[in-house]
């Protein structure tokens, strides 16, 4: 993975995400080498993974079906695949990350 946690791969874009379950509020921010996601649900029976997918889909205006947790299902560090045009997805996520770091984001 690159230093921003994004990597082009066959079938889409891979994104490294650190998830904090049971948070007071949902949120998504760029971190060092990964995204930092907070979800309000507990890590039980895949609920935190589903909440993560919903948060990413809502933030980036993507269909939930285009997102999948491909590794780290039971841990805090996860890899999420964004299916489809990997380069377009990378550009969109990278632009979102820049906007967030500059304080112009909406997540």
Brief description of this entry?
By secondary structure, the chain is α+β, with helices and mostly antiparallel strands. Helix content is 28%, strand content 31%. It has 2 helices and 6 strands; from the N terminus they run ββββαββα.
Determine the strand fraction and express it as a percent band. 25-35%
Rounded to the nearest angstrom, the distance between the terminal CA atoms is 24 Å
- Secondary-structure content class: alpha+beta
Largest sheet entry: 6 strands, mixed
- Please tell me what the overall shape is: globular
- Mind telling me which CATH architecture this is? 2-Layer Sandwich
Strand element count? 6
Count of domain modules: 1
The CATH top-level class label: Alpha Beta
State the helicity in percent bands.
Answer: 25-40%
Rounded average pLDDT: 91
Q: Give the low-pLDDT segments.
A: none
Which value, in Å, is the CA radius of gyration?
13 Å
How would you spell out the order of helices and strands?
Answer: EEEEHEEH
InterPro entries: DUF167, YggU-like_sf
Protein name: UPF0235 protein NJQ99_09325
Pfam families: DUF167
Organism: Futiania mangrovi
């Amino acid at each position: 993975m690159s230093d921003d946690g994004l990597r082009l791969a066959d079938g889409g874009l891979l994104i490294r995400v650190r998830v904090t379950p049971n948070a007071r509020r949902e949120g998504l921010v760029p971190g060092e080498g990964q995204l930092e996601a907070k979800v309000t649900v507990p890590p039980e029976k895949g609920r935190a993974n589903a909440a993560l997918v919903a948060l990413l889909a809502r933030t980036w205006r993507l269909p939930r079906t285009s997102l999948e947790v491909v590794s780290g299902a039971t841990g805090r560090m996860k890899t999420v695949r964004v299916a489809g045009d990997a380069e377009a997805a990378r550009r969109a996520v990278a632009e979102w990350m820049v906007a967030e770091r500059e304080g112009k984001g909406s997540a």
